[in-house]
Design a protein that fits this description.
Length: 471
């Protein structure tokens, strides 16, 4: 048994946040004789084993960072951190083992780091503090630019720091001011050789494929935004990301449904009204998954769907974003096509609640709640299998739920709508984005196109002239 005079260097505990239940860690301060330095591991409490091992690994990485910084500056941990304020920490007692003699001690939550000079802040700690709800950048985007970042996006970038940046050996002990293009290139090489780690159902882990170039660039972007914020604030004089190359990306074109496949789907007898509706709202009305989840009966009137809700797990129900991230309420109408309206009628008949504030795509498990995000993948797979597109073909053609919006844009442009009309209906910020959503080669019936191209020539010269040309 550890004596009462000995203390573990850190202690893990759970804390409920706006984004969910997460593992936090507090570190022992020998000078203050208490656990008064608190950090988030960014590991969410989930699964049978609650991801404790991942949280413990993250805690060790943070501890090593603190020790290296302490050795470098010849200060204790308390000298490194700014003033602390008392905080009520949920489930903190769970971090203490019944075998220890340590009494419960007040936990403290740190304010954002206030060092004498921002460029002297440890790079990893700067990134961790940057990607939090209360950082200067997040507040600026939310309060000044009126373009708040989603809780999911902030948490994702924070997690990336822990998993893919803090573990890079050459970033250990490096300050923000010491980050260079050379170091970033070394990180890119290191990431390019790194493999995806998969967690199995039994709690063990296995290596998968190499991390994709697109994923690497997404993590790199999280660093770039943070560092350039410091440059814009004149905390750094040079930008190490200037002229920095990114990883090569192997993009795979989104698959779409052809006009013939859409006709077949619409004509097919309905087995599950909800899955059919989920597919048609995306393919025929151009709605995103979050917009379908947030759709309420009151949003549908007089042959128009007014898209004014977006449901994302991390943020809950909020307004949708259009044109460069600007939030515009009550101004996103799209036509309710007759085939979609027919399925809506079936869903209305079998729904228990159809009030204006009730969700159209309701959950069967949680009464009155929105349907789960995972439902849409399985709904699409079922509907496509019913029209003869098996799951192997779906994967080969890269047919995804978001790809149904690509179907909407492509078929809409083929229908004769001009680019301005299509861009407005799809709520896309630029014509360039709309072009990325257009896949003419997948949608065109080349046999039919051949007939149309040949028709004028045959009409003028007749079959005899065509035979002569063949000779």
């Amino acid at each position: 048994m550890r004596s009462s005079k000995e203390h573990a260097p850190y202690s893990l505990y759970k804390k409920q946040t706006k984004s969910g239940l997460f593992w936090y860690v507090r570190f022992w301060d020998a000078e203050a004789k208490e656990y008064n330095v608190v950090r988030s591991t960014s590991i969410q409490v989930e699964g049978k084993r609650e991801r404790w091992r991942e949280a413990d690994d993250a805690a060790k990485a943070i501890l090593e960072e603190l020790r290296q910084d302490s050795a470098k500056t010849n200060h204790t941990n308390t000298a490194y951190f700014s003033r602390k304020r008392p905080a009520i920490i949920g489930d903190a007692s769970e971090s203490l083992s019944p075998q220890t003699d340590l009494p419960p001690t007040p936990a403290f939550e740190e304010e954002p780091v206030q060092t004498q000079c921002v460029k002297d802040t440890p790079f990893i700690q700067y990134l961790l503090d940057f990607w939090t709800d209360e950082s200067g950048y997040i507040k600026y985007k939310r309060d000044v630019k009126k373009k708040p970042l989603s809780a999911y996006y902030i948490q994702m970038n924070h997690d990336d720091v822990v998993r893919h940046i803090a573990s890079f050996p050459d970033f250990k002990g490096i300050t923000l001011g010491e980050i260079s293009r050379k170091l970033l290139k070394k990180w890119l090489v290191w990431m390019a050789e790194k493999k995806v780690i998969h967690k199995k159902k039994d709690g063990t882990y296995s290596e998968g494929n190499l991390i994709s170039g697109r994923r690497i660039n997404a993590i790199l972007q999280g660093m770039r935004v943070a560092v350039r914020w410091a440059v814009d604030n004149e905390d750094l004089t040079t930008d190490p990301f200037k002229r920095l190359d990114e990883a090569a990306e192997e993009s795979k074109e989104k698959g779409i449904l052809t006009p013939a496949e859409m006709k077949k789907l619409i004509a097919l007898p309905i087995k599950d009204p909800y899955s059919r509706l989920a597919v048609l709202l995306a393919a025929r009305c151009g709605m995103r998954r979050g917009e379908v989840r947030g759709l309420k009966w009151g949003d549908i009137k007089d042959g128009i769907i007014t898209i004014q809700h977006n449901f994302v797990n991390a943020d809950g129900l909020k307004s949708p974003k259009i044109k460069g991230g600007t939030v515009v309420k009550n101004s996103n109408p799209v036509p309710l096509l007759s085939d979609v309206e027919a399925v809506l009628g079936v869903v209305r008949e079998i729904s228990e609640k159809t009030g204006e504030d009730d969700f159209v795509m309701r959950s069967w498990v949680r009464s009155g709640k929105v349907i789960s995000a995972e439902y849409f993948r399985s709904a699409l797979a079922r509907e496509l299998c019913d029209i003869g597109i098996d799951e192997g073909t779906q994967k080969a053609r890269n047919l995804t739920y978001h790809g149904l919006r690509h179907t909407y844009v492509t078929l809409g442009r083929m229908s004769g709508l001009n680019d301005f009309e299509m861009q407005t209906l799809a709520r896309q910020k630029s014509k360039k984005v709309m072009e990325r959503y257009s896949h003419g080669q997948q949608a065109i019936d080349f046999a039919e196109a051949r007939k149309k191209l040949e028709a004028p020539i045959k009409a003028e010269g007749g079959e005899d002239q065509q035979k002569a040309g063949n000779r």
